[in-house]
Design goal:
There is one protein chain. This protein has one domain. Helix content is about 15%, strand content about 40%. It contains 4 helices and 25 strands. The chain has a 9-stranded antiparallel beta sheet with strand order 2-3-4-5-18-17-19-15-16, covered by helices on one side. Strands 6-25-9-20-21 form a 5-stranded antiparallel beta sheet, covered by helices on one side. A 3-stranded antiparallel beta sheet has the order 13-12-14. β15 and β16 form a beta hairpin. The longest helix has 25 residues.
């Protein structure tokens, strides 16, 4: 009888611990730090005359054109962006807080920031490691040995490996935002992934989100639909090929995809995000956006 009680107690403990671990990992929101706005680059809040419709946004500092392509049985949404200053390329965290399981929809964060255009970021909150530098503030400096995208204060892009340089060293070089997801798609106008490369165990065809730079102050945001009968999705190699050949990017980087892939423009979500087989926007940790 005593052994039976001990066994039941042990099994109960294991079950409770497992439930706590799952809740702590995926559900319990933990805000570690509120966003520090002291390092945010100031922008001139002067839009001048504004022309805006479902495909265009134009003012004195920002020009955005939304284009749609259909390749590899997939609908691809492209935002072609030209800005007068890299200060208009911004990032934001869900609920303006850094933490674990702190999430909001891309559109919700974008609306709060008065973003003209936004895409989801790297969803840092589901990772335990990987550099997180946003708007010049270091939030996490533990390496995951990933290939990261560095956006410098002058708006230039660089692909680095976390094992080769510390986040503190990157900040000293002028890094302003660092994304730890990947992989890189294009480096120096050459495709940097193979046909067999994938993110963890993701399906080869997926909704995707990527960011690229064409030239100084000329960027592209790319989101492909997927997992629907109308839009299959892209492999990393297909995405890289598209960005190299169709968009002529110098550097391109893969951000979080799947159900996270979302593009917001002029107050609306313009793609078809899929979550658990339904057209539904997923909540994420962070966004990249264009705005004042």
């Amino acid at each position: 009888m005593k052994n039976k009680i001990i066994f039941i107690s042990y099994v109960s403990f294991i079950l409770l611990f497992t439930l706590y671990f799952l809740f702590d990992t995926f559900l319990i929101e933990r805000k570690y730090e509120n966003v520090d706005n002291s390092n945010i680059i100031e922008t001139e809040d002067n839009k001048g005359s504004v022309i805006s419709n479902s495909n265009y946004y134009i003012d004195d500092n920002i020009i955005i054109e939304i284009k749609e392509y259909y390749e590899n049985d997939t609908l691809i949404h492209v935002a072609d962006i030209i800005v007068s200053s890299p200060a208009y390329l911004k990032t934001a965290l869900a609920k303006d807080s850094y933490g674990k399981n702190v999430v909001e929809k891309t559109s919700t964060i974008a609306e709060r920031k008065n973003a003209i255009l936004a895409i989801n970021g790297d969803y840092y909150g589901v990772q335990e490691k990987g550099y997180v530098l946003r708007n010049g503030v270091i939030y996490r400096n533990t390496s995951a040995l990933r290939e990261d995208l560095v956006i410098y204060e002058d708006g230039s892009f660089e692909i680095i490996n976390e094992g080769d340089i510390t986040l503190e060293e990157l900040k000293e070089k002028g890094a302003y935002n660092v994304f730890s997801f990947g992989p890189s798609l294009v480096i120096d106008k050459e495709i940097s992934v193979s046909k067999n490369d994938e993110v963890d165990k993701a399906m080869s065809s997926n909704p995707r989100t990527a960011i690229g730079i064409i030239s100084e102050n000329h960027y592209v945001f790319v989101v492909s639909d997927g997992r629907t009968s109308e839009s299959e999705g892209l492999s990393l190699y297909e995405l890289a090929t598209f960005m190299k050949e169709e968009l002529n990017v110098d550097i391109a980087y893969n951000l979080d995809g799947g159900g996270s892939s979302t593009m917001y423009f002029n107050g609306e979500v313009v793609n078809n995000p899929t979550t658990n087989g339904r057209i539904k926007e997923r909540s994420v940790s962070d966004i990249v956006y264009i705005g004042y």
